[in-house]
């Protein structure tokens, strides 16, 4: 693996992943899709695999860089970083937040890869037990978590979720019915997630800047030496919260192994669990350290977790893994229960590459943080102009469609309005993502059972999810009260 013919393309792929992941609109899925054709032209197959694997992990981390600095997620999995990470950046602690993020991403990646190596068959079998009935409740749990972690209250969080689910119904449904398109052909396939996300988080931030709330990134009065001393505390801080990082990484691995869940759901799930179990639960969303550690440990762990059902049963956990799986098949790595016998040497190489990538990520990620920090030394007005330009390019690049630019601006206006009413934006995004999963799972489940709702409540995993949901809501007030008391005691 350390041969120059392997190492150089590997590092080049990771640098490319940092660039693409940190550019709003250019997702990790796009990064992997773009690098796959390049990898085929390399003489060494292992070099091609290293490029693909390096990009898939690096792009997930680097999406947190613009999310922290500019409140624009570079990838959907980085949406949770727009909360506490961005609040730290506004208080002049951006480099501290990103160093913490980088260490947690590497730890999460190591945990995910080790789980892939050690317990792949067992976790994959569990994931395949999920049918339409279980996926329905999994989606409901995800939405309830997103509403519960909203700093403006569960009621406003649920309003955001409902708006997101309503918008997810735009387009053609599974039965061919066209809904809420108003005759516009560009809406037949639904609202594209990336332009919507760029508008909600990016354009709305530009609008807030123009409207007069100009302290949107970092405090200009923060001294460079002070920032450096603060950033050097990232490792001691991570050690204090090591159990949060480990717990979140394990949770991210499990969620990543569920087909269709992905790193974005893993990040929000870990964020919700960390808030519910923390004595600082009420401070989440205001720049608390655990709010950075939990989602960033989970989203990279989910990448390794998503490979578990992909390699063992050929069922990818998310879109990124689906592309990686297709690339593996070109290299004659056929997924299935016999993969370890038929392609044992290649699979071991994949494991080794994935593990070493987590350590190379520290260097590539640090370079990305420094480069982006230099860009942000420009005047804030110039940065906001650049944000607008990149947002337009990112929205257009997905489908080469001007209509997506208009979608982006429409969601920017919507985001600006909702935030003026203290309605959070993150639950809306999750509603937009999980809405189709919930609708299709409910419809397919009812179709299979002739309209009966009984299996949604009687199947063992469904019952476990329902009880977990009820338990979380029942324990929520007591946890928040205990957390508030702990905060008063600390003061």
Features:
globular; 22 helices; disordered C terminus; mainly alpha; two-stranded antiparallel sheet; 491 residues; single chain
Summarize the structure.
It contains 22 helices and two strands. By secondary structure, the chain is mostly helical. It has one domain (4-490).
Characterise this structure.
Strands 1-2 form a two-stranded antiparallel sheet. It is globular and about 55 Å long. The chain contains 22 helices and two strands. Helix 2 packs parallel to helix 15 (319-330), helix 7 (132-148) packs antiparallel against helix 20 (426-448) and helix 8 (154-168) crosses helix 20. Strand 1 and strand 2 (178-179) form a beta hairpin. Residues 215-223 and 476-491 have low confidence and may be disordered. The N and C termini lie far apart (52 Å). It has 491 residues and is an all-alpha fold. It has one domain (4-490). Helices cover 74% and strands 1% of the residues.
Note the topology.
Elements: H1 4-21, H2 28-40, H3 45-62, H4 64-70, H5 84-90, H6 94-127, H7 132-148, H8 154-168, E1 171-172, E2 178-179, H9 193-211, H10 224-231, H11 234-240, H12 242-256, H13 262-277, H14 290-313, H15 319-330, H16 339-342, H17 344-375, H18 380-397, H19 402-420, H20 426-448, H21 454-458, H22 460-490
Helix pairs in contact: 1-2, 1-3, 1-17, 2-3, 2-15, 3-14, 3-15, 3-17, 4-5, 4-6, 5-6, 6-10, 6-11, 6-12, 6-14, 6-17, 7-8, 7-13, 7-20, 7-22, 8-20, 9-18, 9-19, 12-13, 12-14, 13-14, 14-15, 18-19
């Amino acid at each position: 693996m350390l041969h120059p013919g392997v190492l150089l393309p590997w590092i080049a792929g990771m640098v490319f992943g940092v660039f693409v992941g940190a550019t709003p609109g250019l997702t990790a899925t796009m990064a992997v899709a773009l690098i796959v054709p390049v990898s085929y032209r390399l003489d060494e197959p292992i070099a091609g695999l290293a490029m693909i694997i390096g990009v898939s992990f690096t792009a997930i981390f680097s999406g947190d860089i613009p999310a922290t600095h500019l409140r624009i997620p570079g990838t959907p999995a980085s949406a949770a970083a727009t909360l506490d990470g961005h609040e730290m950046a506004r208080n002049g602690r951006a480099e501290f937040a990103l160093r913490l993020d980088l260490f947690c991403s590497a730890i999460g990646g190591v945990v995910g890869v080790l789980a892939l190596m050690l317990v792949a068959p067992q976790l994959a079998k569990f994931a395949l037990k999920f049918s339409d009935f279980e996926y329905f409740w999994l989606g409901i749990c995800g939405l309830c978590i997103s509403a519960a972690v909203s700093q403006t209250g569960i009621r406003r969080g649920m309003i955001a979720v409902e708006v997101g689910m309503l918008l997810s119904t735009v387009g053609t449904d599974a039965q061919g019915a066209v809904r809420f398109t108003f005759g516009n052909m560009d809406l037949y396939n639904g609202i594209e997630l990336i332009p919507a996300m760029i508008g909600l988080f990016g354009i709305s931030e530009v609008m807030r800047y123009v409207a007069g709330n100009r302290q949107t990134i970092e405090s200009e009065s923060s001294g460079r030496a002070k920032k450096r001393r603060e950033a050097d505390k990232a490792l001691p801080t991570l050690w204090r919260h090591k159990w949060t990082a480990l717990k979140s990484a394990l949770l991210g691995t499990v969620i990543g192994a569920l087909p269709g869940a992905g790193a974005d759901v893993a990040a929000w799930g870990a964020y919700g669990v960390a808030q519910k179990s923390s004595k600082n639960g009420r401070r989440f969303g205001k720049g608390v350290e655990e709010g950075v550690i939990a989602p960033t440990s989970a989203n990279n762990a989910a990448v390794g977790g998503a490979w578990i059902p992909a390699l063992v049963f050929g069922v990818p956990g998310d879109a990124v893994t689906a592309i990686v799986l297709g690339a593996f098949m070109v290299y004659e790595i056929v997924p299935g229960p016999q993969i370890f016998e038929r392609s044992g040497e290649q699979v071991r190489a994949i494991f080794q590459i994935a593990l070493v990538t987590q350590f190379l990520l520290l260097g590539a990620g640090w370079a990305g943080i420094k480069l982006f920090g230099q860009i942000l030394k420009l005047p804030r007005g110039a940065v906001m102009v650049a944000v607008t330009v990149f947002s337009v390019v990112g929205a257009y690049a997905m489908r080469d469609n001007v209509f997506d630019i208009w979608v982006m601006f429409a969601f920017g206006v919507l985001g600006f309005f909702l935030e003026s009413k203290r309605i959070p934006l993150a639950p809306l995004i999750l509603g937009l993502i999980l809405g189709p999963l919930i609708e299709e799972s409910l419809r397919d489940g009812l179709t299979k059972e002739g309209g009966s709702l009984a299996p949604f409540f009687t199947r063992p995993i469904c019952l476990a999810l329902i009880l977990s949901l009820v338990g979380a809501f029942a324990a929520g007030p007591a946890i928040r009260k205990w957390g508030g008391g702990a905060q008063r005691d600390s003061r």
